[in-house]
Amino acid sequence: MNSKERVLTTFQFVEPDRVPCWCGASPAFMEKARKELNLTNDEEVRLLFGDDFRRVTASYAPGKTIHSENGPFGIARKGIGYGMAVNHPLSDATLEEIENYNWPDPSDVDISNYRQQAKIHCNDFAILGGDWSPFWHDVIDLIGMESLFIKMYTDPELISNIFNKVVDYYFKVSIRIFEEAADLIDIFFIGNDFGSQTGSLIDENLFNQFISPHLKRLAGLGHKYNLKVMLHCCGGFKELIPSMMDAGIDGIHAIQPSCRGMNITELKKEFGDKIVFNGCIDSHHVLIDGTPEYVRSETKRTLEIMKAGGGFIAGASHDYILEETPVENILAMFETIREYGNY
Fold first, then answer.
1. In a domain, 267, yes or no
2. Looking at the domain assignment, is residue 301 inside a domain?
3. Is residue 290 part of a domain?
4. Average pLDDT, the chain
């Protein structure tokens, strides 16, 4: 099997030739890996690791939107990396002010070379595409987390209106992408973190009221174009998994076994034949803090728990392998997946 066949077989809950490998890595880690491994580009790193996926993204057309430096919704940010919102422009907004807000235009996203990008790897690797669509995070930034949770109870119509505006934008961007290149894409990959180290950020009732309809809408869009739909979601959120499945999510990325409720043995037993799990190899205590020998033993243990029956993609339990992660540990992880991940 090639990588594409391996991944798509896994999404059918059929055992492929071996467990697929996932390598989501930060630019800083990739730079470090290139230097330590004496490689010239990221593609060489991915080939060495055995990554079965390639991702295609779109960017803003130059000069097309005033929001491009602060994301599509114009949120000023400060801090390390993407940073944190420094203001919440809709924290006290009325319905009229929400309607008149300077919402982004989906046509400002440049897809002119999207198809060309996807063609490079579409025959050999599983292609991730569509817009990332972090609508939960955007609404938090627009309103503020405390205000969001209060207004979910005191003014649910207003909150629903904001969610609709945000998701409308992402939905239309992904339509443009899929009309351009859905035949070259395998997985619609979206991302929203609903969990924390100690459990879900939102309870099931509020999740089903405000979040599930939009996940269902996005998942339905992906399925319309014959794509699998995978949700990135950090943290502990076991109680939300049934709602995610009901919404049409086919796979969940970056399962973090160190978070409350995310015991991988229990997850596999309860949901392993219904939704694909991606990740499960602990990024913090194993990949960052561990030795290569410890990484090998924990990777082997994870495979023994998760691989039976398909429906499992092996990789780090964080969306990005961080720069502080030893390259030798990542090599140990992928080598062990290849050695013990065969069916």
1. yes
2. yes
3. yes
4. 95
What are 166-209's pLDDT values in tens digits? 999 999 999 999 999 999 999 999 999 999 999 999 999 999 99
Global pTM exceeds 0.70: yes
Range of the domain at 294: 1-54+120-130+185-190+222-343
Q: Is residue 49 part of a domain?
A: yes
Q: Three-state SS string across 95-140, please? A: HHHHHCCCCCCHHHEECCCHHHHHHHHCCCCEEEECCCCCHHHHHH
192: region left, alpha or beta (phi > 0 left; psi from -120 to 50 alpha): beta
> Which of helix, strand or coil describes residue 188?
strand
Number of domains in the chain: 1
Q: Tens digits of per-residue pLDDT, 279-314?
A: 999 999 999 999 999 999 999 999 999 999 999 999
Bridge partners, residue 55, by sequence = 128
Q: How far is CA 129 from CA 27, 47, 111, 181, 298, in A?
A: 19, 20, 12, 9, 31
